[in-house]
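Annotators were shown the component list below and the corresponding predicted structure, then asked to write short factual statements about the assembly.
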Amino acid sequence: MSTEPATLRATRLRPIVVATTIVVLLAVMLGSVLLGAIDLGAGRVLGEIVAELTGGRSPLSAREAAILWQLRVPRVVLGGLVGAALAASGAAYQGVFHNPLADPYLLGAAAGAGLAATIVIVTDPNAGAGLAGPVPLAAFAGALGGIGLTWLLGRSTGTSTATLVLAGVAVAAFLTAIQTFLQQQDTDTLQRVYSWTLGGLNTAGWQAVLMSLPYIGVGAIVLCFSGRLLDVLALGDEEAQSLGIRPVRVRIIVIAAASLATAGAVAVSGLIGFVGIVVPHVVRLLFGGSYRVVVPLSLVGGAMFLIAADVVARTALAPAELPIGVVTAFAGGPFFLVVLRTARNRLR
Amino acid sequence: MSRHLPKRGFRAVIGLFTLVGTVMVTGCASHAPAAPASTGSNAGSAFPVTVVAPGGNTPVTIATEPKRIVSLDASETRILFGVGAGKQVVAVDKDSDYPGAPRTSIDSTNPNVEAIAGDNPDLVITAYDNNNVVSGLQKLKIPVLKVNAPSNISQAYALWSAIGRATGHQSEADTLISKERQEIAAIVAKAPKPAKPLSYYYELDSTYYTATSHTFIGSLLAQFHLTNIGDPADSASAAGYPQLSQEAILKANPDVIFLTDGGNQGGQSAQTVAARPGWGTLTAVQRGDVFVLDNDQASEWGPTIDSLMQGVADDLAKAGK
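Structure shown to annotators:
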């Protein structure tokens, strides 16, 4: 079923790579805190950070400080969390399904979250499209529900991963059909559903960070530790079994962890495409195909990519917002073609 | 390009795109500049009349006074009843909430030509051409007046006049227009005029989409000498409805906030706005000048403009204190 991996250059993360990526991530975070829809002045922002650390006098007004600490910083943190969750989940799904096109929404997470958010918006007229209210919780439950339905359906019809992917397609189509039907019944709410679907980080605050951190954190830790198992799975189910690993159990654990992280991300940011596909492939091209390397580096790379993309979303049309999905797709689309061209030999 | 995209319009556009499966927003709803309200040699309410909707370019000839009118838009329904053509209306769409109007399940976002034709209309008035409903009705030889959302109050009055003319109520329409004009002038005259114009943020939804001064609602509010904090964010692609960055809203520090996503349109209120991170630092929040507008009034261009203006004037009187 599976051939010998074409590229398994590095199976361990070298300390220099870890140190470099962390330094780059911190630099990206700092840079994106300095930049925003309005110009607070890089020197004054640094002065504020120093003042906050040392208890000194801040150069910013109370409102400017609120912009920095209550809007911009949590938005950068949330962008990092969401990007990390989507990229690491994408990498894990690609490993589980032996499919370079797998992304975190593959198993019905997006359709499930969309349907649940729509049901809440349609039935509860007070539910806004932003973060306040029951929409994020519904989206979280819906994402997990969609994946759960796919899993049940896939298991009842066969055991191969291809069956599971096909079940995901069927579930997504079915749930989307229900969502469209509900929207057409209640066209007053179309705009709010649409706003939610477009996603983005414009409504981010610390509340969203706290809401998503537990799920993304747990999911990410489990995924980072499952790199070796994914490497073994890549050799094929029989080989894995001969090495004392139960492929079905590994798949359940990895899919559960990736789904938890994805659901946490979807709940606070809506649907943001391409991060989950593009980042793992960049990591693979740069550092090799071992999942012990790809999953943790995708985690960091996804954070970097989405934080950087959000800087563009925040500043390109300032003081207006550009939907972040436009930025990720604009950067991701062309790259995807390159990946497809090189995929034949280098990617599995 | 003159284009008005109130919530109702936004919804209709989205509905259309949902159906064709794309979310490209370019290339839609671009109308020719405003044209004279009506043309043709027939004066008064003598039929046949030839009417061109303001901003439109396809004349519609109506042979005899229409007796079975179908309206597919809430503003147009209100205008029909306002000009005294209510008795001629046999069916209105499900969003037309004018009291006593013959409401049906017709959905202007996803209209069905057969269902509309089933009411046997001799005139259909619609603001949107979803599902190609206009050409569908024309194939059945049913006269269709496709109106365009106005971008200022003059265009709205021209539209009222055209509807009056098309339905045989030209003089009532003229009376209605002059009455509305006087009432609005009186409301604006009485409104407080602070030495420094107040700035306002107009919220369409809780992801901070706004309407700038270049929209119909923005042009109405501009009569109160207000400055709109969304104006710098406008662009050709946003067409008057940009999504603002929260940072920009806080930086602009509006004196007044108008919400159209309150109540059953999104549940926002002065309390929810005050609870948003950082928003407690805003002058409007600290002074309690966050007001919920009636979403229907704020997104329509029928004869409820005076009520909307009165409500805004009352809010501004509070804010000025």
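Statements collected:
1. The radius of gyration of chain B is 20 Å.
2. The first strand of chain B starts at residue 49 and ends at 51.
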